Amino acid sequence: MGQTNYSASKAGVIGLTQTVARELGRHGIRCNSVLPGFITTPMTQKVSQKVLDKVTGLIPMGHLGNPEDVADVVAFLASDDSGYITGASVEVTGGLFM
């Protein structure tokens, strides 16, 4: 319960990412999105330890991510090293949603 708005907004981000990439690619403009999973932030600090332990048990990498994990992906996507990547939605989830 309570995931409808969140799910709809995530789907909207993915759709917008793909549309912008498709429409602006011919102008050399790339568009990608980053979809963070459970990342250690003030938001996750409000989640009970019981829930965090349960979620952590579902993550194949065995731990929550940290902000640097997300920042590294953003930096890569913003760099010339990702020059042929567009329309992608990159999950930074430790494998949670495989």
From TrEMBL:
Gene3D superfamilies per the record?
NAD(P)-binding Rossmann-like Domain (3.40.50.720)
Q: Identify the Pfam families for this entry.
A: adh_short_C2
Q: What GO terms are given for molecular function?
A: estradiol 17-beta-dehydrogenase [NAD(P)+] activity; quinone binding
**Which top-rank group of organisms is this from?**
Eukaryota
Q: Its pathway?
A: Lipid metabolism; fatty acid biosynthesis
The alphabetized UniProt keywords are: Fatty acid biosynthesis, Fatty acid metabolism, Lipid biosynthesis, Lipid metabolism, Oxidoreductase
Record keywords: Lipid biosynthesis included? yes
| InterPro entries for this protein | NAD(P)-bd_dom_sf, SDR_fam
Q: Which Gene Ontology BP terms does the record give?
A: estrogen biosynthetic process; fatty acid biosynthetic process
The answer to whether the entry has keyword Lipid metabolism is yes
Regarding protein family, the annotation reads: Belongs to the short-chain dehydrogenases/reductases (SDR) family.
The protein in question is named Hydroxysteroid 17-beta dehydrogenase 8
What species is this protein from? Molossus molossus (Pallas' mastiff bat)
